[in-house]
Design goal:
Number of helices: 15
CATH class of the largest domain: Alpha Beta
Bound molecules: N-(iminomethyl)-L-glutamic acid, fe (iii) ion
Helix content: 25-40%
CATH architecture of the largest domain: Alpha-Beta Barrel
Largest sheet: 8 strands, mixed
Protein name: Imidazolonepropionase
Number of strands: 16
GO molecular function: imidazolonepropionase activity; iron ion binding; zinc ion binding
Radius of gyration: 21 Å
Oligomer: single chain
Shape: globular
EC number: 3.5.2.7
InterPro entries: Amidohydro-rel (IPR006680), HutI (IPR005920), Metal-dep_hydrolase_composite (IPR011059), Metal_Hydrolase (IPR032466)
Function: Catalyzes the hydrolytic cleavage of the carbon-nitrogen bond in imidazolone-5-propanoate to yield N-formimidoyl-L-glutamate. It is the third step in the universal histidine degradation pathway.
CATH superfamily of the largest domain: Metal-dependent hydrolases
Length: 417
């Protein structure tokens, strides 16, 4: 049995007896912070926490590691509920093209973008893809990410989509991070199906999905519902096909245009609707009282210079918000969740507490792991991060680009750098 006691914590963030829900509206500005606190871990679980004055002292020193966190904050690790972290190559040349004036959409229409990434991924063997992705996500642990959702969608052939999902399955076994896999065959129509969209729909529904289900390769299903990509009708058909295999939707909607995707996804019981750079009153109405988590991806807005999600409007309507990185080689080549909180505060007017709630508790919900992750609760997984000595929690979003995390514990084990 291994035990860790963290004492003299300056502030313990996101605590609760059994926080399985999410926070919405005004609740999001409450961090359930305990000042001058302790936290006790046994094996991979949180077994006790509270104010230092209520700590009972040490009775059994056997196998106990004591960490003194004087001046430091302790938080649940970030849950990054939306990424495309398995890819074969970066896309700097498109970055330069955009600087020279081409838009992301224009680059995609020329055969760049997602199709560029798909061509590169199809060529790469599974082992190399796996090793590179493992290094890539492990690098994020240092910045405090303890759970990550990863999508397919750079395969776009039966073989390459399966290859990507098998890589994610291997990552689940090899990494101490909690990982969820999402099937995103509907990321773009492959070149070969440019004039035969029905043919690709048929391939996804009748070939990819049955094989994915047979090998148990996906937890969720996604679709990029957007002009020049997938129509609302195509998304609906896909989500219906996914439901036959118990794949809950988590979808890309409203990145550039509003096509009714939010309302439809809510109807299909989506766990989350992601992007939402565009959001109207109908969407907000559809989300009210639903079980679907609105998820903003401010890294994408920053990197593509497109509008930011209207966080204040969503919060005023008493909605919850999750924030995720969208880490991918095209629109967001960075998975640092601390930076995501910075962009959300500066560009979306979220408070530091709202941004930290949106990247822990609420994003755990958005990837379906809120019963075990996302908060400091007894019985939850001991996935926590200890900051450097900092003056306040606001330092995390404030000092943008800096790594304020000193130590990360995943499943009760201290992660070596
Ligand atoms: O979430 N919008 C669709 N998919 C990704 C970007 C994919 C890419 O450019 O490679 C996103 O931004
Ligand atoms: Fe995405």
């Amino acid at each position: 049995m291994s035990k860790i006691l963290i004492k003299n914590i300056k502030g313990l963030f996101q605590t609760g007896e059994h926080l399985t829900h999410f926070k919405k509206g005004k609740e999001m500005d409450n961090g359930d912070l305990i000042n001058n606190a302790f936290l006790a871990i046994e094996d991979d679980e949180i077994i006790a926490f509270g104010k230092m004055e209520d700590w009972g002292g040490i009775t059994d020193w056997r196998d106990l590691e004591v960490i003194d966190a004087e001046g430091k904050y302790v938080l649940p690790t970030f849950c990054d509920s939306h990424t495309h972290a398995v890819f074969a190559a970066t896309r700097e040349e498109e970055f330069e093209d955009r600087i020279k004036g081409l838009s992301y959409e224009e680059i995609a229409l020329k055969g760049g973008g997602i199709l560029n990434s798909a061509a590169r991924l199809q060529e790469m063997d599974e082992d190399t893809l796996f090793e590179e992705a493992l290094k890539r996500i492990h690098n994020l642990v240092e910045y405090g990410t303890g759970a990550i959702e990863i999508k397919s969608g750079y395969g776009l052939t039966v073989a390459a989509e399966l290859k990507m999902l098998r890589v994610i399955k291997r990552l689940k076994a090899a990494s101490p991070m909690k990982i969820k896999a999402t099937f995103l065959g509907a990321h773009a129509f492959p070149k070969e199906y440019k004039d035969n969209h029905e043919g690709y729909m048929d391939l996804m529904i009748n070939e990819m999905l049955p094989k994915i289900a047979e090998e148990n390769l996906a937890d969720y299903i996604d679709c990029f519902c957007e002009r020049n990509y997938f129509t609302l009708e195509q998304m609906n058909r896909l989500l219906e096909a996914g439901a036959k295999y118990n794949l809950k939707p988590k979808v890309h909607v409203n990145q550039f245009s509003i096509m009714g995707g939010v309302e439809a996804a809510v109807k299909y019981g989506a766990l989350s609707v992601d992007h939402l750079e565009e959001l109207d009153e109908n969407d907000i109405e559809a989300l009210k009282g639903s079980k679907t988590m609105p998820t903003f991806l401010p890294g994408c807005s920053f990197f593509l210079s497109i509008p930011y999600g209207k966080a204040r409007q969503a919060l005023a309507a008493d909605l919850p918000i999750a924030l995720a990185s969208d880490f991918n080689p095209g629109s967001t080549p960075n998975g640092n969740m601390q930076l995501i909180t910075s962009i959300a505060c500066v560009k979306m007017n979220m408070t530091p507490t709202e941004a930290l709630n949106a990247t822990t508790l609420n994003s755990a919900y958005a990837m379906g792991i809120n019963e075990t992750h996302g908060s400091i609760s007894i019985g939850k997984k001991a996935n926590i991060m200890i900051t450097k000595p900092i003056s306040s929690l606001a330092r995390i979003p404030y000092s943008y680009g800096e790594n304020n995390v000193e130590e990360v514990i995943l499943n009760g084990k201290i992660i070596k750098k």
